[in-house]
Predict the structure of DinB family protein.
Amino acid sequence: MHTSSLRQNFLAELDHELTNTRRVLERVPFEQAEYRPHPKSMTLWQLATHVVNLLSFKTLFLEAAGRDFLDPNGAKPGPTPTSHAELLARFDQDSATLRQALEASDDEQMTQNFRLHRGEHTIFEQPKSTAIRLMGLNHSIHHRGQLTVYLRLLDIPVPGLYGPSADEKSGG
């Protein structure tokens, strides 16, 4: 009987979710970057950039023992993309980097703890596999869902992610 490893399971799920996320990002209109559905909401471009920046966080969860938000030398997201092409290029690059880090890891590494903190205050400390799942993958899926609402409100056809979307069912 063959059993999958944590790493193999994450790779399979990651590939599926990265494909879906890219399909959503492809539809984000740069010319409407400042759109926000509510004053408390991020702009469309801030949200799309955040989704891309979360890829670096997932890689950090794999490669480091922790991250202190007060550390001025800590990992930071790259500059805000200034075009749609740049956003997609960074998504592709960061996706490849994350995939390589996951391929280079093993189940033992995935069970080691990752501590996210601000100085002495621990935000969370969990096994790396849990950190990737909760603060990485689930967090990304959450914000991707928000992006699909922005697309809907802008009357941009929403791609189906786990089956056909309403746009695909009605022929667009």
About this structure: The mean pLDDT is 89. The beta strands are 66-68, 113-118, 121-127. The chain has six helices and three strands.
